[in-house]
Write a structure and sequence with these properties.
- The protein is of the alpha/beta class.
- The chain is built from 14 helices and twelve strands.
- The strands form three sheets. The chain has a five-stranded antiparallel sheet.
- The longest helix is centred in the C-terminal third of the chain and has 35 residues, at 292-326.
């Protein structure tokens, strides 16, 4: 989503801030509200919880006893209460809110390596999605229903890994698809930019792009394309699940008035392909071709990865702060924080997977807390580098008619 917004709307310099923490519930979000929202002061807040709220351990059996059924009900009631409180708190602080239903559990997958460890998890998450939709209606808030959207994909593609190896955590391609769905539901349009140019006269009509330096020879046509936005990289694995290109990534170029024949297209110094005059008149999608824009996308991808890395370190620090505060530590007192960290690390020794995860968080906190200001500065530098890298740059397009 961050990469898309930067490429499509380079003038806006929109920043997507990751405030998620692995394993957290809606109740945890309430507990760390003051650490997350006021310091970042976002214009819009996207809220999605559910998978951890329902307590997956409550869904390990298809034939639950009364005690397990009671735990399921209690978890869903707590989820509804926490989401209601979270919405009220966001409204009180005048944040623009978008609710998202939780992504589904994969009940359809046929890959044998994956076990159906949670027999009725689909029921729990379906209930969470229902609660979110009802809250959105009651509070007059927009809702993006990722649950229904993802369930439909899982049902159509039981052979895939869309729901993740454990059927709970969507795999990387699924994250891209869900991100595209969010953008689509926010009203983003299919066309990045478009151009129709007369190969005889150089007359053109364009949307978010222009033309300069038009030149015409006997069998050659050349002009400089001046785009105001750039496309996303094409991801074939995502296209298998969702029409990403047709929905969000079209940059059509139409060249009319050419003599009949086949033309070789070169974009800058890069060979983009051979096309018939009929195909060029109908239009080719520059987003799918090898162009200088595609080359620059590699750089923005590296920067986006750096942003994620810095954000992850900062999220671990916030997680560490919540653990320290919940254990009675004073976040304004470094000595108090150190005492809690050392005590919790000693308590966690040899205590199982949950304790091991907390140990990792607290160890990272101990390692990085002194560098928090520098890490924040590095994150901001990476964001500014991204905004610089996505600035659209003109490039030449040359069409050369090939001999028959």
């Amino acid at each position: 989503v961050q990469q898309y917004l930067a490429l499509r709307h380079p003038d806006r310099k929109a920043v997507v801030i990751n405030l998620g923490i692995a394993g957290n519930t809606s109740g945890d979000a309430l507990a760390r509200f003051d650490l997350d929202l006021p310091p970042n002061n976002p214009d819009r807040v996207f809220v999605m919880f559910g998978m951890n709220d329902i307590r997956m351990g409550n869904y390990r059996t298809a034939d639950p006893d009364p005690a397990t059924l009671a735990k399921r009900r209690e978890a869903l009631e707590a989820y509804q209460e926490n989401m209601t409180r979270l919405i009220a708190l966001l409204k009180k602080n005048k944040y623009d809110i978008v609710l998202l239903t939780p992504t589904p559990y994969d009940q359809y997958g046929t890959v044998s390596a994956r076990e159906r460890a949670f027999a009725n998890a689909p029921d729990g998450l379906t209930e969470c999605a229902r609660i979110v939709r009802e809250l959105a209606a009651a509070e007059s808030l927009p809702v993006i229903d990722l649950h229904s959207f993802g369930t439909a994909i899982l049902e159509r593609h039981p052979e895939g890994d869309f729901g993740g190896k454990d059927r709970v955590h969507p795999e990387s391609t699924a994250h891209i698809v869900y991100g595209c769905r969010i953008l689509e539901m926010l009203g983003e349009k299919p066309v990045v930019a478009q151009l129709e140019i007369d190969g005889k006269t150089g007359a053109f009509t364009g949307d978010r792009c222009g033309v300069r330096d038009f030149k015409q020879g006997d069998d050659t046509l050349q002009f400089t394309l001046v785009p105001a936005a750039s496309p996303l990289p094409v991801i074939p694995a995502a296209e298998a699940y969702y029409p990403m290109t047709a929905t969000l990534n079209r940059m059509p170029l139409q060249v009319t008035g050419l003599l009949p024949g086949t033309y070789r297209m070169q974009c800058g110094d890069i060979a983009a392909g051979d096309f018939s005059s009929e195909r060029l008149a109908a239009g080719v999608n520059l987003a799918e071709l090898n162009t200088p824009m595609a080359e620059r996308l590699k750089e923005t991808g590296k920067i986006t990865a750096a942003i994620r890395k810095h954000e992850q370190v900062l999220r671990y620090l916030i997680h560490g702060k919540t653990i320290i505060r919940n254990a009675g530590g004073d976040l304004a007192d470094p000595a108090s924080c150190r005492e809690v960290v050392e005590r919790k690390l000693a308590e966690n020794a040899g205590q199982g997977a949950g304790a091991a995860y907390q140990t990792r968080i607290l160890s990272d906190y101990r390692k990085n807390i002194a560098s928090e200001p520098q890490i924040k500065a590095q994150l901001e530098e990476a964001r500014q580098a991204m905004f610089q890298a996505v600035r659209p740059e003109p490039f030449t397009i040359t069409l050369t008619r090939l001999a028959e």
